Amino acid sequence: MEFHLSKKLFKEANQYLVGGVNSPVRAFKAVSGQPVFIERGAGAKIYDVDGNEYIDYVCSWGPLILGHAHPQVVEVVKSVCEKGTSFGAGCEVEVELARQIIEAIPSIELIRLVNSGTEAVMSAIRLARAWTKRDKIIKFEGCYHGHSDSLLVKAGSGATTLGIPDSLGIPTALAKYTITLPYNDLERVKEVVEKQGEEIACIIVEPIAANMGLILPGKGFLQGLREITRQYRILLIFDEVITGFRVAYGGAQQLYGVQPDITCLGKIIGGGFPVGAYGGKREIMEMVAPLGDVYQAGTLSGNPIAMHAGLQTLKILAQPTIYEQLAQKTTLLVEGLQNTAQNCRINPFFTKVASLFCIFFTREEVIDYQTAKTSDTARYATYFKEILNQGIYLAPSQFEAGFVSLAHTQQDIEKTISASRDGFKAINNYGMVHSCLKACG
Ligand SMILES: *Cc1c(COP(=O)(O)O)cnc(C)c1O
Fold this sequence. Notes:
Aspartate Aminotransferase, domain 1, disordered C terminus
């Protein structure tokens, strides 16, 4: 495969864009690679500027559950554009999308639509602080909730009390209000809440962690969070920006049967356009302006293009057997990859749920950030580059989930498995022998 034009474009991009990209992971730094520039997408495929074709398992990091340029989404967007793209005033389709979401996710009684997942989460945290009149929040190590100040915080060395900024430019004084605990460790949550419960506004969690690779919640973890938050009048926020309409029509909360107080959404509900949303119990949401005194606004919020693209996507997802089809495809892929890996005498740790999957190049069972970090990122990079060259586009980082869309065919999946044989062979002299397949849903 040749990458002449991508190379040239990346060079030029670096003159004008920070690091040549508009979001860091796109620079391929984590795999020490040359980023490819994409010209178009169709179904499960993307095509770069050099004309190379790839089967895409990034799917724009989640939104494209129907695949690229789905005809019904494209059609509705085209016709909407002609009637004006934004009014800064109410439009009918935003009401329809809100109704569609609320019917899918019963814990949401009132919702506010915004323009990104980051914005949704940032606003949900403000609301939780206002509702509880408390300032501290608990989050989990390795969960990503967008790049707002309170959430770009990691655990400090004495851990459970003082958070420290995870980026320059975040006031230490603010980071102190964020407590970061290990994912799946309910005991640690209990310890902290027993001591500081009265000061904690919310616990925010990705109900399925999909930003440190893919890590499933252990048995009772989400239920445990629900119980302890109720006991201490702490709000439970599920960040379902990835999992909403992805792992089930009603999101991870439907899959695991746990209802949060506030849910954050994004990605799929915009059908490939910028979007986010936060919603929850009516009395809590009524604190948001104009009904209440928690301020939050947006120039392009609820614009008809994103609303129509999102609504069309959700309508397709609401049809029968969609999630069964997605799960079947993913099972076929992951089982094929696992068999192939074993035949190549390596046994990475696979995770999967619904249409999400991940291959961790480690012998450990991956249950949290620390165990995810045991993955050999050099081996991932080797595997990634080998299969990229064969036309398979996986996330350019070990610590991302893989996304399967409705557009992926059995043929696509078989091609992926056969390319992976070479990818695994390229690293098979490392002798990883521990095997464990964790599958759910
Ligand atoms: C992508 C993501 C976000 C941030 O959404 P943006 O639209 O990129 O701002 C927040 N939370 C989770 C769980 C995400 O995966």
